[in-house]
Write a structure and sequence with these properties.
Layout: E1 6-11, H1 12-15, E2 23-24, H2 37-54, E3 64-73, E4 80-84, H3 86-104, H4 109-123, E5 124-125, E6 134-135, E7 137-138, H5 144-152, E8 154-155, E9 160-161, H6 170-190, H7 196-213, E10 214-221, H8 224-235, H9 243-254, H10 258-274, H11 278-293, H12 301-314, H13 322-340, H14 347-359, H15 365-372, H16 381-396, H17 402-417, H18 422-432, H19 436-445, H20 451-469, E11 482-486, H21 501-505, E12 511-515, H22 527-535, H23 540-543, E13 551-552, E14 557-558, H24 561-577
Parallel strand pairs: 2-4, 2-7, 3-10
Antiparallel strand pairs: 1-10, 3-4, 5-6, 8-9, 11-12, 13-14
Helix pairs in contact: 2-6, 2-7, 3-4, 3-6, 3-7, 5-6, 8-9, 9-12, 10-13, 11-15, 11-17, 13-15, 14-16, 15-17, 16-18, 19-24
Length: about 600
Amino acid sequence: MAIIKNAARQTLGQLIGANNPPVVVPDDSQRQYAWGKREVDTYWQDILKFMRARSTGTQASSEYFIGPIVTITDDKITTRSLLDGQQRLTTSTILIAAIRDTLGAMAATEARVMANNLQRDYIARRDGRHAQPQYFLTLSLFDRDFFRDCIQNWSETTGRQVTTEQASRPSHKLIQDSYAAFKMHIGKALEPIPDDEKRLDWLDELADCLMKGLVFVEVQTPTSSDANEVFETINSRGKDLSTVDLVRNFLMEKSRNDDEKDRVNNAWRSLLDGFERREDIEKFLRHFWVARHGDVRSHSLYTTIREELTERFDNALPRYEVRTFAAELQNASGRYIELITSDTGVEELDGLLDEVRSLSADAAYPLLLAISETANYTDMVRVTQALISYYVRWTVVGRRESTLLEEKLFKLSKEVSAGLGTDHACVQITSWTPDDGTFQTDFAQASIPRSTQARYLLSTIERYLRQRAGVDDVVVAGTTAVHVEHIYPQSPAPEFKCDDHGQWINRLGNQTLLHGRKNRAASNKTYPEKVSAYDSSSLLITQDTGIQRLWDAERSVWRVQGIDERQAELSKIALDVWPVGARDEHTL
């Protein structure tokens, strides 16, 4: 059971005010800044709503409870290490800075005085002109310097920020975006207010709402272990905390010395600097675990990691240390980034990884990650080809249960991590792949409503046709210059609408590719009004696959039987494009 020293009501002004101990986010816990537009906009709307209610003067609307925070405090409470509540306190400080800068840009002397008071009382102060500032909220090493330069450092002389740090992590961009959002919201709120005097009153009221009206409950604990237990309890009951944050806190808790903590921090720096989005880090962590241990659901990932690693860390023999796990995680993250960005340096493999990304075939990544542990990238080509064919035949075209595919691939990932060779993995995937007869039947009847999947299928067939014809290749997959065109229109004129309209629209036989936005204007026209776009196209899937069969020229009506006929022809080509197992050297 966690020890709680005290649980006290605190206003925002008391938590980060100049007369209270500074709040510090320790380097061995917590996460980087993570609030995006949705959270920031919701926070702003809540503040405005509270501000309006508070102006009524009723006791019931005098305070706005914003939630608990968890701190580690010494006996004399001279320091407060923040374990939970960073997002709310950081966002509140950003809003205070936005109010400060709005005041600083106003002409009135009183506005500059108000801005200076906000800076000194709630953001940072100096004991002398040349003294280092004392910050009332200090973030962890991931965001500390950027937050100071972007938000907390401010010149009382010029009324402007003194920014030198450049955004280098996703969290830095989120800090910038939050500040910009608050400046925009404040600007819009001030627009209808007629003069500076009333604007100063409104800004003063907003600041007063924040400092005196926002109320927290500070849960004070004596040790990091107690704080972690409270922290996890709070976040297991509905608070927004990611698995990545919980895993890092757990690893810090289990670290035996500063060297191990440094190793964990180095690994997390690699994750934060290597991935563009926080969601990608979450996905990597799950895929890393799946690659070694088999399937685990996202909602139970942290519990599973904690239980299994606790047992391994606590065993005397064989010794498995936190530093070892952190190093494995960091090494795997580098390979994972190369896989998801198609940046392995092996041209053939990178082209295949582009296909995996176009298909959104995330289930393939744990296996690819497991194979990359021991195989070089060149040797991964054949198994990646087999994976793509399996995914296309089973899921995209066959519309079979995707969870069954995931279960098989995740189990295979664990077996590869345990020593199963690449060739054996390729054989296993091939044995699961629907045979040619099944695939051809599936393809001939396939309806593909998702434009990304339709574009992938059509563009991959286009590359095959060009290769077979000896025509110079063109890039079509994923480019905005090429769009999916429905030959029989999605919204035809009533007189041209076919019976059972809905069942034909997304059939593959009714879809092709066209270059250029100018051709989209004709998308809902009859065939004669669209034929010039088809005839002038340089794409073989549009020129040479019998689009004209979809139009009855004698009767001037759409001929849906032509969709079946064209799709049957495409299904024969598809057998070569996505063969069972690996492609031969002449395919694509």
